[in-house]
Amino acid sequence: MEFFERPDASPGDAPSGRPLERAVLVHLELPDSLGPEDLDEFHHLVASSGVLAVAEVTGRRESPDPATFVGSGKVRELHDVVAAEDADVVLFNHALSPGQERNLERALKCRVLDRTGLILAIFAQRARTHEGRLQVELAQLRHLSTRLVRGWTHLERQKGGIGLRGPGETQLETDRRLVRERIRSIEGRLVKVRNQRAQGRRARERSEAPLISLVGYTNAGKSTLFNRLTESDVYVADQLFATLDPTLRRVRIAGIGPAILADTVGFIRHLPHRLVDAFRATLEETLGASLLLHITDASAPERDSNVDAVNEVLEEIGADTLPVLHVFNKIDLLDEAPRIERDEQGLPWRVWVSAQSGRGLALLHEAMAERVALGWVDQWVRLPVTAGGLRARLHEAGEVLDERTSEEGAMLLRVRVNRVHFQRLLRSAGLSETDVAVAPGAVPPVAGDGPASYNPSRLH
């Protein structure tokens, strides 16, 4: 897989001093295509890859041609355009079969990349961590493995020999074996990396800090919002897939306490299934989230279809059942005021903000606190005198907001704690929520009002 130069150079030169690759773009309108929106996204992909688009060839077909996808007439047109523009590569806004790709390369006398190959090239530029690079290389090799068939036709089997194999066939089998071995090696290394990541995730679960994951269509402003909420300096650029590797930061949610915010890769429509694995590093953080912040560019004309594209990917990875708070970003580009919209149950459903200017972020904090609090217990409980161990564990976790002693000597605690963690602590002490619950407004008289044994910072 050959990679494009990064798009941070002048229009004529790459950062390395070499000229940018010259690309001819190809887009056909098919009955199932998304039309202008899809073509606009293709232009963003090409710009993000760093090539110089020198020409664009469009057309319309009822169905793809089995041999060349575009048909013989359009191939001749492409051949003339490639020659006239001295193009290095032809980029298709479609998924090509291995046979179609090879036939086009023979006819056009230059490299041909389909949409999947283009996205993989961008992934290779964006991945910065060890795990991210392994994921991208794995996706590239799996894609390449389908392109090795008859890839060495200049070294094919020689005629006339009985029972002899030509060097071309041997070379092809060698390439297949090397690719398979490399894939197995990367898969083994990724298992170790994922086990390490799982250990870190279990440590966060033991701390019971809620995980809030940002998801959304690419270039919707997730990283800008992430920086605003966490006071970080995560890389931000007006590019597709500017963020590929996961980024975690600790934040404080009013009334809840510490939480973990996760920035994830942006999604696009028509994401090939084989590329979902290249997102795995960030998507694994999404699956364990207490709340998803679905970031949408409110100014985008196609914002509804972008939301649908994100929902499709979330469903594919099994994250479609997680609680979601929709964040409509970039209201600075619209005549919209910051606000919270609520659903029929009165819960925050959508928040309108501007990550760039900071308008509406206070409302977003309020909505996040309210949604995260749904999975938490905030109540008075009565513990018997024999439950001293449970009391100590609640204090160690910093989840006791107030404590008193009843006239009978029972321990009265006001706790704010993750419900799952609370139930687990109760079970370990042989108790249930029914055993310890105190009705709202029915806190019994106390033997004396001593100083509260809570961490005041958790209330702010």
Walk me through this protein's architecture.
Residues 210-376 form the Hflx-type G domain. Monomer. Associates with the 50S ribosomal subunit. This is GTPase HflX. The chain is of the alpha/beta class and 460 residues long. It is built from 13 helices and 14 strands. The two termini are 52 Å apart. A hairpin with a 5-residue loop joins β10 (339-342) and β11. The strands form 3 sheets. Strands 6-7-5-8-9-11-10 form a 7-stranded mixed sheet, sandwiched between helices. A 4-stranded parallel sheet has the order 2-1-3-4, with helices on both faces. The protein has a 3-stranded antiparallel sheet with strand order 12-14-13. The model is unreliable at 1-18, 150-169 and 446-460 (pLDDT under 50).
Task: Briefly say what this structure is.
The chain has 460 residues and is an alpha/beta fold.
Entry keywords:
single chain; seven-stranded mixed sheet; elongated; hydrolase activity
Share of residues in helices: 25-40%
Q: Please write the string of helix (H) and strand (E) elements.
A: EHEHEHEHHHEHEEHEHEEEHEHEEHH
Shape field: elongated
Counted beta strands: 14
Distance between the termini: 52 Å
User: How many helical elements?
Assistant: 13
- Largest beta sheet: what is the strand line-up? 6-7-5-8-9-11-10
Q: Report the β-strand fraction as a percent range.
A: 15-25%
Point out poorly predicted stretches.
Answer: 1-18, 150-169, 446-460
Average predicted local confidence, pLDDT: 76
Structural class: alpha/beta
Largest sheet: 7 strands, mixed
How big is the Rg? Answer: 28 Å
Domain Hflx-type G: 210-376
Subunit structure: Monomer. Associates with the 50S ribosomal subunit.
InterPro entries: G_HFLX_dom, GTP-bd, GTP-bd_M, GTPase_HflX, GTPase_HflX_N, GTPase_HflX_N_sf, P-loop_NTPase
Biased composition (Low complexity): 441-452
